[in-house]
Amino acid sequence: MQTAVASSFMEKHQKTIKYLKKYWTLYLMLLLPIAYFIIFKYIPMTYIQIAFKKYSIVQSPWQMPWADNNGMEYFIKAFSNRDFIYALRNTLWLNVLDLVVGFPAPIILALLLNELTFKRFKRFTQTVVYMPHFLSWIIISGMALKLLAPGTGLVNIVIERLGFASVPFLNDPTHWRWTYVFLGIWKSVGWNTNMLRAFRANIDPQLYEAAAMDGAGRWRSMWHITLPGIRSTIITLLILSLGHILGSEFDRPYSLTNALVISASNVISTFIYTNGIRGLQFSLTTAVGLFQSVICVIFLFAANALAKKFGERGIW
After folding, report:
1. pTM beyond 0.90
2. Structural domain boundaries, residue 33
């Protein structure tokens, strides 16, 4: 019995050595990204302690004294801060709008592009919708200001020439929210569409041929073949979007904001910048950032578990 176990162990050991000799270069290439994550992602995590301690620039996180209320002082201050509550509300509101309005957009566009038969026009459309992804939000905000400014913006000039009242796209909180969402769709829809179309290419063309022979039109083929074929990708993107439900970009709201819409544009990322970077309240904003990250992780796990419950693979 012992001889058989030892023989099995030696056989597995030899297979492992043989495998490593064959693929050692791949594991060597992994060292660089692993080192990146350890140095720039995991080591800085020690500074999460600042959320529970009284920050001092001359002390390491391990030497700083604990905050009052068993280290929860800055969490209590955050939830007692009216600006933070407004930032939390705005973050949720804008992300929900992004999810409800923006998430279906690349799916619809991918399905429409899939039905186009004129290949040159299809490639041209893909290029046009893909290009905004490479523009920074600073450039986009400058373009939006020139096009959407009341009175002087090109869009409002056309609207007024048609006999309608000028629309305050960037100067009214309600209009600003919808402008924010649609600019986000315009920038990202091409990138997400290409991802979905890449996975659509894995669908067996014979399925479409069989459906056509059975008398199925384009709509039925789209509904019963294309959508089920890319469903796993859609679910994965949805899980990642739900995991970001309390997250917030900084450059997007910051570049589009102004004093007239601050009640709608002040999100958690801009709150952290204003109070942490400019206000030097490092413990308070670290507590806010930690709270934000924990909630995002909870949403991510919940969305993944829900996807698995309905028979999908999830993201792990």
Report:
1. no
2. 2-44
